[in-house]
Design goal:
With 324 residues, the chain is of the alpha/beta class. The chain has helices at residues 4-8, 12-23, 29-36, 56-69, 92-95, 122-133, 170-177, 196-209, 238-254, 258-287, 290-301, 306-314; strands at residues 44-50, 74-80, 106-112, 138-142, 159-164, 185-188, 226-229. The protein folds into two domains: 4-270, P-loop containing nucleotide triphosphate hydrolases (Rossmann fold); 289-324, no CATH class. It has twelve helices and seven strands. The protein has a seven-stranded parallel β-sheet, sandwiched between helices. Strand 2 (74-80), helix 5 and strand 3 (106-112) form a beta-alpha-beta unit.
């Protein structure tokens, strides 16, 4: 039996087992998370996103080394694409960070995105609670790399880093997608390539013109997003990047924004829990109902189309009707 005290003691085996239960939607997880929740809120959570091929995993590997030099305890959640066959994660990211496998103060876990359009699933937030309770100083969440869809990271991370590479037009795509408005630090990786300086200039110009983000998460004012160049393969610029992330967190603390951000994170988490739990109960209720079975039979007989059937069933839901 999994015991919360082992997780709070930082036992990696217990933490890994807990995350596995989360991914498996084990019914015991909810109670365990409630026991852990009073012990969280201490970790600095960094979100890393960017299009496939920009070097996210390699850069995170280098960041781990820099943070370890500062004696920080580091955890990484690498949100990988979901396998269409097994539903599990494709573990490419974790393989790139194997040099840290023997470091007892580093924990790396790949998780499946499970089809979430924002590149994250609720399981990612649950896992970050476990890692926070285990006493990790910094938790790095790498999103699936869906590019224009990676907005959900802002509801989980204190600081968001967006990676691009020269010559790909990522800056223009960011403006089109609105991703530019979610970033705190912009990283031009593989900056030994031609046009790196032009990419930096382009990003700075776009940042200077960006409008206040229309997000449910309230973002701090006064922080000017940084644009940095790195070469993850040889570590160039990685120390400056690590220092900039820490500076951003210090900025948030000095301006009393950490509590505000935590409130926004908790609101987002509450909404996702409410959505998941409500949907689960409603589906279970409907599937056990006589009317659901009758409509399903009609679909199979061809006497009603699926759209009309779904509309008919959902019209029966009258929970929380406005009675004012």
């Amino acid at each position: 039996m999994l015991e919360v005290k082992n997780i709070l003691a930082g036992n990696q085996r217990a933490g890994a087992r807990m995350i596995r239960l989360i991914e498996d939607n084990d019914p015991t997880v909810f109670g365990l998370l409630k026991e852990l929740y009073p012990h969280v809120g201490h970790a600095f959570i960094i979100g890393i996103t960017g299009s496939p091929g920009v070097g996210k995993s390699t850069l995170i590997d280098a960041l781990i080394s820099e943070f370890r030099k500062l004696d920080k305890k580091i955890a990484v959640i690498a949100v990988d694409p979901t396998s269409p066959f097994s539903g599990g994660a494709i573990l490419g990211d974790r393989l790139r960070m194997q040099r840290h496998a023997t470091d007892k103060r580093v924990f790396i876990r790949s998780m499946a995105s499970r089809g979430q359009k924002g590149g994250l699933s609720r399981a990612t937030k649950d896992a970050s609670i476990v890692l926070d309770a285990m006493g990790y100083d910094i938790i790095i969440i790498e999103t699936v790399g869906a590019g224009q869809a990676d907005f959900d990271i802002t509801t989980l991370a204190h600081s968001t880093g967006i990676i691009s590479i020269p010559g790909t037009g990522d800056g223009i795509q960011a403006v089109k997608a609105g991703i530019l408005e979610t970033g705190d630090i912009f990283i031009v990786n593989k900056s030994d390539k031609p046009d790196a300086d032009a990419s930096v200039y382009e990003l700075k110009m776009m940042i200077s013109m960006r409008k206040p983000p229309n997000l449910k998460i309230t973002r701090e004012t006064g922080w000017t997003p940084r644009v940095l160049k790195t070469i993850a393969q040889n570590g160039t610029g990685v120390k400056e990047l690590a220092d900039t992330f820490l500076s951003h967190f210090d900025f948030m603390k000095k301006n009393n924004f950490v509590d505000q951000k935590r409130n926004a994170m908790e609101t987002s988490y509450f909404n996702s829990l409410l959505q998941d739990l409500t949907l689960k109960k409603l589906l279970l209720l409907m599937k056990n109902s006589k009317e659901y079975k009758e409509v399903l039979q009609k679909i199979q007989e061809g006497s009603i189309d699926p759209l009309s059937a779904a509309e008919h069933i959902t019209s029966k839901i009258c929970i929380f009707e406005n009675n004012d």
